[in-house]
Amino acid sequence: MIVDIENVSWKREKQWILKDISWQIRQGEHWSLVGLNGSGKTTLLNMINGYIWPTKGSISVLDQTFGRCDLRELRKDIGWVSSSLQQHLHGEETAKHIVISGKFATIGLYDQVSTDIEEQAEQLLTLLNCQIFKDRRYDTLSQGERQRILIARALMAEPKLLILDEPCTGLDIIAREQLLQIIEKVSKAPQAPTLIYVTHHVEEILPCFSHTLMLKKGEVYQLGPTEKVLTSTLLTDFFDTPIKVYQQQERLWLTLA
């Protein structure tokens, strides 16, 4: 079991932010997590990483039960790609150095690295089509290029679970589709980590995401196989707006009904 969340709730001050969440992710599954702003997605991610402790319920990640494990060690097996990380990185560093720093979970490189680590970084840069700009300063890259570098950086630590937290935010349609192609490629790579893709745009959900959790106002609205969850009927109720879903090239797209 990659993630096992049982009847989890979280209360901040006098308000319940998450209520009775149960969610299991098994080996070999990739999930999308769908919810509008304020639905509790970020809170749930923080909980999976052990940064927030549940008010009620139990959590196990990678077969490590919270309260009985060293969360600092557990986090080494969890990659989390978020746009918020960009503001903490050193923009003058090269893209390749940013990727290598993921091996040490540091902001910046302070030690000489081995040939093996250099080769691992080169392989990831090639996998994610970043080799062309690997020697450029990070702060000269486009938003889409930076996101690819962040994914490569997360993969340097060889995580067993990789969380992609709204990675397409701020991208134009071309950059978005290029990044989604990269994510599909990562999902099919040998020894690929389990993926959780967080979004509120259904059209970003790739065929590799076999399962979907829909989170609404801090509660599980629906979860299960993607094709059974993301239907016109369920999405109409989920968004409180008449929605029609259609499929094109194995992707789901929405229109207002």
Automatic annotation (TrEMBL):
It is a peripheral membrane protein. Keywords: ATP-binding, Nucleotide-binding, Transport. GO terms for molecular function: ATP binding; ATP hydrolysis activity; transmembrane transporter activity. The keyword Iron-sulfur does not apply. It is found in: Cell membrane. GO terms for cellular component: plasma membrane. Residues 3-242 form the ABC transporter domain. It comes from the Bacteria. This is Putative ABC transporter ATP-binding protein YlmA.
